[in-house]
Design brief:
globular
Length: 214
């Protein structure tokens, strides 16, 4: 079983980048700031473009000693020797994805309910992303915020590491950890920041002061 050895999980969305900044530049800065895993999630790219971008990010994450996961795309994850895949509620069943990935690659599952979380755990997931904790534009389609009480209840009910997603800031990070989250997953808080490296450092320090900050 793959090891979840990171607290700070960056999810890509190149549409959140300030003008003039490439995704590779933002990821490089975020990795320098302490991001331990990057999920490549660019659903509007054609396969060839996504593959090329995945290759680029594979080099960047490998050089930084960080993890790379592909959102949904098991084929591209295997093609670029990524560390794993993040499944959505519209992806292949968790058990089938595990069969395709094997036991050594990470299998994350996005969930919006305790029922989904328990099912993913039973079928072989390595970790969960639970959202939205707070209101955020990227998760508006999934309904109102779940809140800290729901996060606490889910973390208490499963054995897997849980990453909190949705509206996480450095001010909110301590409360999220106190609710039981193993880590935090972010998009805008890092990608849209004026200084992604500094934003990552602040988030890491706020969530887990015990982990050294670059």
């Amino acid at each position: 079983m793959a090891t979840v050895d990171f607290d700070l999980y960056l999810i890509s969305d190149r549409h959140q980048l300030p003008a003039g900044r490439s995704l590779a530049e933002a990821v490089t800065a975020a990795l320098a700031g302490g991001v331990g895993a990057v999920q490549l999630r660019e659903k509007d790219l054609a396969t060839a473009e996504l593959y090329a971008l995945a290759l680029e990010l594979r080099q960047l994450t490998a050089a930084a000693g960080a993890r790379l996961l592909l959102n949904d795309r098991i084929d591209i994850a295997l093609a670029v020797a990524a560390d794993g895949v993040q499944l959505t509620e519209q992806s292949l069943p968790v058990a089938m994805a595990r069969r395709l990935l094997g036991p050594e690659r990470l299998l994350g599952v996005s969930c919006h309910s305790l029922e989904r979380a328990l099912q993913a755990e039973a079928e072989g997931a390595d970790f969960l992303c639970f959202s939205p904790i707070y209101a955020t534009p990227s998760k508006a389609a999934y309904g109102p915020p779940q809140g800290l009480d729901a996060l606490h209840g889910l973390c208490a009910a499963v054995k897997l590491p849980v990453f909190a997603l949705g509206g996480i800031t450095s001010e909110r990070a301590p409360a999220v950890r106190a609710a039981g989250a193993r880590g935090i997953a972010l998009i805008r808080a890092i990608l849209a920041a004026a200084d992604p490296a500094q934003a990552a450092r602040q988030l890491q320090a706020a969530f887990n002061p015990e982990r050294p900050v670059p």
